[in-house]
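Structure in, sequence out. Go:
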């Protein structure tokens, strides 16, 4: 199977270096398209891990590209008003001629994310129910029909325009690797989009569980996308690649760096090993891989593009 390969823009990394400019990110997005990447992605956070706002940034990317899908990895749904969010996403889908993909999540359980929810006026403990209701409401609004809604939000005869280019709205992939996350993906989303595990066989087993549960709910698992968010450090010298990876994770996550190395899908090593590692997930059923690079983005994008052509993935 030939999978799609995506590229994650370093929005958080730039801010950590004190660089607020968006132009370097737009240049990287253009380069990703030129090198044959299938999608360009942006992460999300308000205050917990400050970065460029993803929907706004992807609208700018849409104007600088013609082919790549534009994705969120992942959009923290419960901190946003779903009516406004549905309007923004529908407009982005129109601006990009139907290229939007939405990785969605509810936020991780850490003190800075709790503070982020409080700053947004949202209740962290109710985030999963809030997310699922927001998703249902957005999908209803994306029909373009008159909507009546009585829940956390009140909509009385509201009609959203423009509708997204993609009928029913952009595909939404649920993140997370916990059993409850797998179940939510199977019941409510168009795909599964975790950050791990690093073992392709384990990922494949979980993906089979998602598809089996989707089938039990009368859904067609073949219409769903098995995706993965991966962090990689590619260098000819394996020790240097691992050193770069750990430096990146420790800088990004602080004391949690080693834990993330063990729990997330991470790889360090030479290009040929990178190709084999990625192919393991593809063979296990992944059809869309999103790459986060540790270190030099230009060089590693070029390396992966060349490796991909050589391996036919």
């Amino acid at each position: 199977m030939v999978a799609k390969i995506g590229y994650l823009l370093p929005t958080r990394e730039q801010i950590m270096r004190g660089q607020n400019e968006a132009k370097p990110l737009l240049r990287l997005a253009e380069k990703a398209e030129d090198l044959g990447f299938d999608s360009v992605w942006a992460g999300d956070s308000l205050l917990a891990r400050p970065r460029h706002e993803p929907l706004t940034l992807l609208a700018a990317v849409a104007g600088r590209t013609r082919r790549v899908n534009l994705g969120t990895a992942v959009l923290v749904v419960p901190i946003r008003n779903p009516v406004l969010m549905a309007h923004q996403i529908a407009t982005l889908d129109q601006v990009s001629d139907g290229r939007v993909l939405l990785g969605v999540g509810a936020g991780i359980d850490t003190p800075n994310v709790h503070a982020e929810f409080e700053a947004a006026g949202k209740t962290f403990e109710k985030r999963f129910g809030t997310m699922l209701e927001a998703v249902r409401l957005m999908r209803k609004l994306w029909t373009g029909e008159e909507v009546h809604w009585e829940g956390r939000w009140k909509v009385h005869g509201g009609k959203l325009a423009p509708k997204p280019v993609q009928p029913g709205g952009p595909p939404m992939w649920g993140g997370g690797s916990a059993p409850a996350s797998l179940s939510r993906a199977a019941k409510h989303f168009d795909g599964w989009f975790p950050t791990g595990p690093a073992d392709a066989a384990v990922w494949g087993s979980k993906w089979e569980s998602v598809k089996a549960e989707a089938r039990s709910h009368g859904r067609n698992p073949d219409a769903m996308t098995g995706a993965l968010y991966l962090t990689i450090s590619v260098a000819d010298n394996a020790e240097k690649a691992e050193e770069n990876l750990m430096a990146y994770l420790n800088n990004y996550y602080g004391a949690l760096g080693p834990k993330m190395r063990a729990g997330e899908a991470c790889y360090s090593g030479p290009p040929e090993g990178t190709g084999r590692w990625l192919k393991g997930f593809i063979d296990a059923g992944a059809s869309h891989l999103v790459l986060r690079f540790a270190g030099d983005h230009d060089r590693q994008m070029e390396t992966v593009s060349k490796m991909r052509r050589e391996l036919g993935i």
